[in-house]
Automatic annotation (TrEMBL):
Enzyme class of the recorded protein, top EC level: transferase
Similarity section: Belongs to the methyltransferase superfamily. RsmI family.
UniProt subcellular location: Cytoplasm
Gene that this polypeptide is encoded by: rsmI
One GO location term (cellular component): cytoplasm
Pfam families according to UniProt: TP_methylase (PF00590)
Name of the protein: Ribosomal RNA small subunit methyltransferase I
Length: 230
């Protein structure tokens, strides 16, 4: 039985890849990836040549039996996402579950993560945190998720440039003008980190059109100031 390697790749700066990740990519028989062009660019940068097979949300169920068959034949297979740690807001958990049930070994190769990069640079407590992935698109579901987050916990979520203002406005509606951290394009050339009140960040992004990928963090105290959280 072969092994399935879950390999974290850079979230922006190619220099962030680990030596172990490179060693593993060099020895596997096949690399499963969301976008073969993006992963191909990464491998070419490090002069690694490997067969690539697309693995994303819409072909996941089709791919799983194929991958299990290859593992049964002793193939060594890597799974990567376009950026960061596989399975974090990306497909893969179903494959991991089926691989374990089939008796194959799943080996994590840890490395870059935008979730942790944002958390440790946010100024919010790091001892207890909750990652929500992307917030729901509909207002009702989004408000429900935001209202139900635990207190005194650093809450982390991803957001697109098209919905970041709406999400900040929803946080303001629920909790008032609380402090929020926003990380944009972390580790990339145009990395930007902002921490301010909900209203100040809303104003900032209304003045300057949001671009890139966002990680947002907030933390609700047990007792909100008067007039907040209404």
């Amino acid at each position: 039985m072969g092994n399935l390697y879950l390999i974290a790749t850079p979230i922006g700066n190619l220099g962030d890849i680990t030596l172990r990740a490179l060693e593993t990519l060099k020895k596997v028989d096949l690399v499963l990836c969301e976008d073969t062009r993006k992963t191909g660019f990464l491998l070419n940068h490090y002069q690694i040549s490997k067969p690539l097979l697309s693995y994303f949300e819409h072909n996941e169920l089709k791919r799983i039996p194929e991958v299990l068959t290859m593992l049964e034949k002793g193939k060594e297979i890597a799974l990567v996402s376009d950026a960061g740690t596989p399975l974090i807001s990306d497909p893969g958990f179903k494959l991991v579950r089926e691989t374990l049930q089939a008796g194959a070994n799943v080996i994590p190769i840890p490395g870059p993560s935008s979730v942790l990069a944002a958390l440790i640079s946010s100024g919010f407590p790091t001892d207890k945190f909750l990652f929500l992935g992307y917030l729901p698109r509909t207002s009702g579901k989004k408000e429900k998720v935001i209202r139900e987050v635990p207190k005194e916990t650093s809450v982390i979520f991803f957001e697109s440039p098209f919905r970041i203002i709406n999400s900040l406005e929803m946080i303001y509606k629920v909790y008032g003008d609380i402090e929020i951290f926003i990380g944009r394009e972390l580790t990339k050339v145009y990395e930007e980190k902002s921490r301010g009140t909900a209203l100040s960040l809303i104003e900032k992004f209304k003045k300057s059109k949001p671009r890139g990928e966002f990680v947002a963090i907030f933390n609700i105290s047990k007792e909100l100031p008067e007039n907040q959280g209404q």
